[in-house]
Amino acid sequence: MSVFKSLPTPPAAPKKPVTDTRHGISRSDDYAWLRADNWQAMFKDPSILAPEIRAHLEAENTYMNAAMADTKDLQKALFAEMKGRIKEDDSSVPVKDGPYAYGTLFVTGGEQPHYFREARDGGDRKLLLNGDKENEGKSYFRLSGIDHSTDHSHGIWGFDDKGSEYFTLKVRNLETGEDLADVLDNTGGGGVWAPDGKSFFYTLQDENHRPSKIFHHIIGTPQSDDRLVYEEEDAGFFMGVGGSLLDDYIFIDIHDHETSEYRIIPTSDLTAEPKLVAERETGIEYEITEGGEVFYILTNDGDAKDFKIMETPADRPGKENWREIVAHKPGTLILSHMAYARHLIWLERKDGLPRIIIRDRRSGEEHSIAFEEEAYSLGLQGAAEYDTDVIRFSYSSMTTPSQLYDYNMVTRERTLLKTQEVPSGHNPADYVTRRVFAPAWDGEQVPVTLLYRKDTPLDGSAPCLLYGYGAYGIAIPSGFNTNCLSLADRGFVYAIAHIRGGKDKGFSWYEDGKMEKKTNTFKDFIAAADYLNEQKFTSYAKIIAEGGSAGGMLMGAVANMAPEKFAGVIAAVPFVDVLNTMLDDTLPLTPPEWPEWGNPIDSKEEYEQIAAYSPYDNVGEKPYPPILALGGLTDPRVTYWEPAKWVAKLRDKTTGDAPILLKTNMDAGHGGASGRFQRLEEVAFEYSFAIKVANKM
Asked: Between 20 and 30 A from 500 (CA), which of 6, 180, 192, 654?
């Protein structure tokens, strides 16, 4: 019996067929009209959205609210629980940098972070930026942080008040707290100071929301006078700018999902032409960190699929001078690296678990930091200073709250700085976390991390929220998440499927879930559902699938492939209109995404590959389970019309009576609500859908 009763008639989007022919293949799209022709301008001014489109999105929200009306009290209860697990007046452990230590804090009732600094070894805190004050009167507000100059006199801070990820930059005098006249629009959100503190470098987003240009801004001059430092002509590449710990170099990082290139500017000559390190080669990635007179380069060059570390003279960084110092070890993926005066460190993952390796640069001696739990997460923060023996890292598991450590790389002493507080209480002994392996269709073993209360019956009666992502090589960490405790406390099994498309089991795990092998991602997720059903952790009738963004594509695909194996589906900002999006090279992420999904404009083969799984294109006449799709009006990554079109088509095609719901946040973009508690309200809403579908209200 359906848990959704007495629903009003759902909106029916008008069909206005638009035909597109590529490679001799014609397709008709009934709902193409939902894509605003003026989307670039609308992201900056949502009020200009076409009335017909706005009316449809608002009608969908009205229907969604009616379907979820009986969960209002549940949403409030979930929100209160989640908020109760957060220390409202929390503060970070300040990071030492020169004469000061910098940190962030939240105040009771506040939504936004406050940035502060204090004397290096403690003392009175000076507030640098009050996020709640800057947020006043805005329906959406997201800070990009504050970057202090080398001389600690000024800071660059940025904000986005539309959700469109066009950030405005301002410059603040850190002594007086006053902002200078400098205002820079349409930036990527941050900047890198020159050592003299009189200028900085930043990325500019073009009209198609791509960071295609690096500019040099001199304090006190208008943005129109900024000098163009470098322009990337290939729309398929992202670009960012960073700096070295020693302030010797400005790094320009140019990359897509499989290829990278660096250019460097010595800070001794800020007007110098950016110097190429190694020319881009398709499929070759590299990252640079400075080690004094040398650069350390993390790369997959030379068939080092799981990466190796090279060394090269800083004044002669070309590939002809690269020398291997950390060999490639198949199955052990090096994720990141850092260098300090006396140590080289890197974070690696083997058999799905992370560890930190530390090498003495003089002796070559190595040791590791690792933990014993069955599944856990490590975060390597490093240090803000080059001449140090102390780095910082974090540790957590699904049952263990986050712990922050300082680690002395010489004495190997760990100093616990902070343990995440759960004000409402948390007893790790009440919960169980496990790592199990689901057999995939081709014999691979798919890791699945589980969290549940130790008194949860494992007889198939427990509901399950099964989360997945599986794209861009992103591994989903098995870290502490206070939100999912609200599900575990209601008898749910909370599961994370570490499917192909991520790098959870090495680089090959990523390769086996992209391009022509993309369907492995979907099959792995279904295999995880099969295993959980067979082992009686849950049952098909009680599994609610959840994923967002590229994980939303996963949701659309598994709903098409195996709707009978899921009691419900939650798809947040879902990338479901894959073929149309990859055919539209004006959209912000389309050219950079071609190495991940394929280029259907140029390749008929890749067109057909995408068309075979694209969720929107493969909606069929079958009974779909209850589906909740969530979008953001100003989302530049997954545009609002993708979930809107998908829901319209699902509702038209389904042969069942389960509701298909769409919630569009008319005041936000890809990340949803911007405040820390506003975001909890969205999680509470999503969880209330899962609880309702599982009939556990």
From this structure: 654
Reference 215, options 166, 157, 274; nearest CA is 274
Q: What residues act catalytically?
A: 549, 635, 670
What is the dihedral sign for C-alpha 476, 479, 482, 488? Answer: positive
Q: How many CB atoms lie within 10 A of CB 177?
A: 12
Please tell me the number of Cα atoms within 13 Å of 603 on its side-chain side: 17
Q: Where are the alpha helices (DSSP H) in 19-88?
A: 39-44, 51-67, 72-84
Q: 493: alpha, beta or left, given left = phi > 0 and alpha = psi -120 to 50?
A: beta
**Could you tell me the end-to-end alpha-carbon distance of the chain, in angstroms, rounded to an integer?**
15
The answer to whether the beta carbons of residues 393 and 378 sit under 8 Å apart is: yes
Give the span between the Cα atoms of 526 and 533, in whole angstroms. Answer: 11
How far is Cα 112 from Cα 223, in angstroms, rounded to an integer? 28
Residues in the chain: 697
Helix (H, G, I), strand (E, B) or coil at 121: coil
Residue in the block written with tokens 């240090």: 383
Structure tokens at 164: 């469109």
The pLDDT value recorded for residue 672 is 58
Q: What burial class does residue 553 get, using C-beta atoms within 10 Å of its C-beta: 0-12 exposed, 13-18 middle, 19+ buried?
A: buried
Global pTM reads: 0.91
What are the tokens at 369?
Answer: 């930091």
CA angle 59, 63, 68 (to 5 degrees): 145
- Joined tokens for residue 44: 């900056």
Average pLDDT, integer, range 384-404: 96
